[in-house]
Amino acid sequence: MITRLLFISILTMTVTLLSAQGTKIPLYVGTYTSDKGSKGIYEFEFDTQTGDAKLIRETETPSPSFIDRSSRFLIAANELTDGNQSISSFAITDNGLKFINKVGTGGTAPCHIVMDKERKFAVASNYLGGALDLFSLADNGEILSKEDTKTYNGSSVDKKRQEASHIHSTFIGPDKLLYVSDLGADKIYVLDVVKDKDGKLQFKEVNTLTSKLGGGPRHIAFHPNGKYLYSLLEMTGDIEVFKKVGKSWKSQQVISMRKEGFDGKSGAADLKLSSDGKFLYSTDRVDANTITVFSVARNGALKQIQVSSVFGKGPRNFNFSPDERFVLVANQLTDEIVLFNRDKKSGLLSDSGKRIKAFTPVCILF
Fold it and tell me: pLDDT tens digits for the chain (366 residues)?
């Protein structure tokens, strides 16, 4: 009897220990670098149960303002304008990130990077120069070559900020097509990636969406059912909802993320949908410094249900923790990541009181 109780006690302790270890996961933060601040990519150990984060190491690389990763390697967009702009690849090892190689981009200020699901290619969006770059990847994460560059020459109604194409991001839709936001032209380009007769990867134009004029599309989120596309309009602080009709998309709603009565300037930064498709979240910078929560109706329409302070300035990128219990907001101008508790049933956020110190954080990735 005593032996049996001892066995059960040891088994319980082992399960508890393994469970506790399983709550600790890597958290990577991309930044803007400087002599007085960040040197590159911060790597934290994040506790998914408590929301606590411990800095493990910092990997040097210039201004990795956006990052994407697989289980084996990480790709960073080095957002520079001095001729050294590039994308860099790092192996993910037990001892941190290990540099593999880097390749220059076809434009300047590459501000977004994304890989396809199979990790065979990466697409870099260059804010300056109107260039969209396509890179092939090896299985180990090495950037093999720049396969194609597509250059856009658009403009729109705001003569100061939309004097030329500004490619801000590329997201891959449920249909596996690329959705490219051009802030300067108020366009969303839809592209496919195909191989030419020699096996080289190429962009292929499929469609073009026109967004609200003067809005400046920045980022995109897709509903899990694939029927709705949400476009974040940086310049007006709006979200435009598109519904899929056949093989095309039709605009069906434009809704503000701003609090009623707010008359300051907006700089909408990021948006994401909860995995169940019931709630959408978006951040707004400049004068607002807020995160907004929308409920999502069955027809894809949005309804604003909460506008909360981010308790800092310059909320850039944000992300859910893997179980979506927390929302982490990167406040670029106050050098801090703020953690919100998230109620999965109501979608509403509340301040957890937890903060993660990081210099100029602009991208959060689990």
Answer: 555 544 445 444 444 444 445 699 999 999 999 998 999 999 999 999 999 999 999 999 999 999 999 999 999 999 999 999 999 999 999 999 999 999 999 999 999 999 999 999 999 999 999 999 999 999 999 999 999 999 999 999 999 999 999 999 999 999 999 999 999 999 999 999 999 999 999 999 999 999 999 999 999 999 999 999 999 999 999 999 999 999 899 999 999 999 999 999 999 999 999 999 999 999 999 999 999 999 999 999 999 999 999 999 999 999 999 999 999 999 999 999 999 999 999 999 999 999 999 999 999 999
Contacts of 183 (CB under 8 A, 6+ apart): 127, 161, 162, 166, 167, 168, 216, 217, 218, 234, 235
How many Cα atoms are found within 13 Å in the side-chain-facing hemisphere of 56? 20
3-state helix, strand, coil in the chain (%, to 5): 5, 55, 40
Check if the beta carbon of residue 100 is closer than 8 Å to that of residue 90.
Answer: yes
Helices within the chain (DSSP H only): 2-22
CA dist., res. 335 & res. 137, Å (int) = 33
137: CB partners within 8 A, 6+ apart: 75, 89, 115, 119, 120, 121, 122, 143, 144
| 218-78-117-95 Cα dihedral, nearest 10 degrees | -140
Asked whether the whole model's pTM tops 0.85, one would answer yes
DSSP letters for 245-261: ETTEEEEEEEEE-SPTT
CA atoms within 13 A on the CB side of 213: 5
- Measure the CA–CA gap between 150 and 136, rounded to whole angstroms: 15
Q: Exposed (0-12), middle (13-18) or buried (19+): which is 180, by Cβ within 10 Å?
A: buried
Neighbour order of strands in the sheet with 238-245: 217-222, 228-233, 238-245, 248-256
